């Protein structure tokens, strides 16, 4: 099968386009990676090259040795993924140590995978292990309202989780484990990758202060839906804070406990502190 005909490639491209349409991907902002299933890699084998030069990932992900990923290119625009996928995205393969990658398809006009490849792959490794292999998608977006909140809320997991849960009743059902927050760091390297993957052991969402968000999920719908839900909740909070700095009424800790029972989710008590 041709790479561009594969269902997972079409799902990846649609998700990139959805993110572009949300306004989360100015210029080359954001990046997306998908851990390809063995049978999916087999189905496009005829178009995968084995001549690519091995290059350093910049970190080690031994549990992902030999895996194939579909990735966005560094400096490439989400806006162009639909119209020019072969220029914008790539299939890469990891070596048997999980320390190097090579390009097997795509990026036909040159270039390399996203500069956030260390963060993506370290997150993939953590989430693959934490979910018994279920999670396959890691998504980084420059979500406007979440970024705005990182200037006015304390950069604490408990505060972001509780405030965003309060803004929409379904939020604790969509991200019951909560949200992690990384203070400002230089992007693109191993240090921020280690900090983010540490949070991903507990959460499916990590906020990068003054930069954006990382989400992890099983498939494109769930991962995009998670990003969309958190960002929508952040938009409501920004609107609320713009109208008046305090709340006249809200969803209380006791309300959340009732919701948890009916919706059969476990909400950690550390997010249900009295205010
Ligand atoms: P890339 O173009 O290298 O993917 O970088 C975009 C970005 O959002 C960095 O955090
Ligand atoms: Zn970014």
From TrEMBL:
Record carries keyword Metal-binding = yes
Q: What sequence ranges are listed for the domain Class II aldolase/adducin N-terminal? A: 10-238
Q: What is its EC number?
A: 4.1.2.19
Which note does the record give on the cofactor?
A: Binds 1 zinc ion per subunit.
Task: Kindly list the positions annotated as binding Zn(2+).
Answer: 140, 142, 211
Name what cofactor the protein needs. Zn(2+)
Active site (UniProt): 116
Keyword Phosphoprotein included in the entry's annotation: no
Task: State where the protein is found.
Answer: Cytoplasm
For this chain, one GO molecular function annotation is: rhamnulose-1-phosphate aldolase activity
Q: What class of enzyme is it?
A: lyase
Q: Return the InterPro entries for the record.
A: Aldolase_class_II_sugar_metab, Aldolase_II/adducin_N, Aldolase_II/adducin_N_sf, Rhamnulose-1-P_Aldolase
User: Mind listing the UniProt keywords for this protein, alphabetically?
Assistant: Cytoplasm, Lyase, Metal-binding, Rhamnose metabolism, Zinc
Per its UniProt record, what SMART domains does this chain match?
Aldolase_II (SM01007)
**What pathway is this protein said to act in by its record?**
Carbohydrate degradation; L-rhamnose degradation; glycerone phosphate from L-rhamnose: step 3/3
Which Pfam family, any one of them, does this sequence belong to?
Answer: Aldolase_II
Catalysis performed (reactions) = L-rhamnulose 1-phosphate = (S)-lactaldehyde + dihydroxyacetone phosphate
- What does the record give as the function of this protein? Catalyzes the reversible cleavage of L-rhamnulose-1-phosphate to dihydroxyacetone phosphate (DHAP) and L-lactaldehyde.
**Can you tell me which family this protein belongs to?**
Belongs to the aldolase class II family. RhaD subfamily.
Q: What is this protein called?
A: Rhamnulose-1-phosphate aldolase
> What is the organism of origin for this protein?
Blautia celeris
Which gene specifies this protein's sequence?
Answer: rhaD
């Amino acid at each position: 099968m041709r790479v561009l005909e594969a269902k997972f490639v079409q799902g990846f491209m649609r998700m990139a386009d959805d993110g572009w349409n949300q306004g989360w991907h100015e210029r080359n902002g954001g990046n997306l990676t998908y851990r390809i299933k063995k049978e999916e890699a087999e189905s496009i084998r005829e178009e995968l090259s084995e001549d690519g030069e091995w290059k350093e990932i910049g970190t080690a992900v031994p549990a992902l040795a030999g895996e194939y990923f579909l990735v966005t290119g560094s400096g490439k625009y989400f806006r162009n993924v639909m119209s020019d996928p072969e220029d914008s995205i790539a299939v890469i393969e990891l070596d048997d140590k999980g320390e190097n990658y090579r390009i097997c398809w795509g990026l036909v006009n040159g270039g390399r995978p996203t500069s956030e490849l260390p963060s993506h792959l370290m997150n993939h490794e953590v989430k693959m292990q934490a979910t018994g292999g279920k999670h396959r998608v890691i998504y980084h977006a420059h979500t406007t309202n979440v970024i705005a909140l990182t200037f006015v809320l304390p950069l604490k997991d408990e505060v972001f989780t509780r405030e965003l849960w309060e803004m929409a009743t379904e939020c604790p059902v969509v991200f019951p484990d909560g949200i992690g927050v990384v203070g400002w760091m230089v992007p693109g390297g191993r240090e921020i990758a280690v900090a983010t993957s540490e949070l991903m052991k507990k959460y499916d969402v990590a906020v990068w202060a003054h930069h954006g968000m990382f989400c992890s999920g099983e498939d494109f719908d769930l991962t995009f839906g998670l990003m969309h839900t958190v960002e929508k909740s952040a938009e409501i909070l920004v609107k609320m804070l713009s109208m008046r700095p305090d709340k006249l009424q809200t969803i209380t800790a006791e309300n959340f406990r009732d919701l948890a029972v009916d919706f059969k989710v476990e909400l950690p008590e550390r997010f249900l502190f009295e205010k």
